[in-house]
Specification:
alpha/beta; 10-stranded mixed sheet; Leu-rich_rpt; elongated; Leucine-rich repeat, LRR (right-handed beta-alpha superhelix); repeat
Length: about 250
Amino acid sequence: MQTICVHSTTMTHINQILMCDNIHRDTVVAAATASDAISYTSNSSAAAQSISNSDCTDVLPYIKTNWCELTDLDLTGNLLTQIDASVRTAPKLRTLVLDQNRIRAVQNLAELSQLQTLSLSVNLIGECIDWHLELGNLVTLNLAQNRLKKLSGLRKLLSLVNLDLSCNLIDELEEVDNVARLPILEALRLTGNPLAGSVDYRPRVLSRFHERAAEISLDSERGTQKELDTALVLSALHTSKMRQISQNSQR
């Protein structure tokens, strides 16, 4: 089994899926007929209760022995409040989608060395602290529609290529510096933040990437020549200012 999708239930913990062998009857049928996926979607609380209250003593060897092959887990639209330790039972997980839940922190992902895509849009995340300790090999990170103001915890995600921070609370240009230094970042979304409504928003953000400005897709668009020219000037001014501050501090 490579994929599990459980959408729109009142499930509150990931372990209700990963640590229980007797998943809802309809899901078991799906597993028996499609060797690479389980999919379960329900809008009813009663159906969710059938998952959370299922009898874990009914062993389904097919499911239990295949977590080691699980690569994609999508738990969109549930009532999850945390990323519990049960995710460690899927060591080959490459894509984890936890959109539209109630998660406030990233945890228990450090052992998932193959995790490349993490989507946490529409959650309650208000801070990110040293996330490289949890997400060292991540390529794509979606944090749209959370409560982030500070980005310092993302500054060491050196393998990150795609980063969605749209619709958060970022209002200071200096916060962009934390992600602008990521060496292979290609796509950044900041639309919907207070910063995105400021004057010359696009060239100001692109200027923080300095010589890499032309390589960056900002809000799904590359910089125009005019924006890049302005960014170049702003970059030079910022570099000069930082150099002056450094010299003054050494006196």
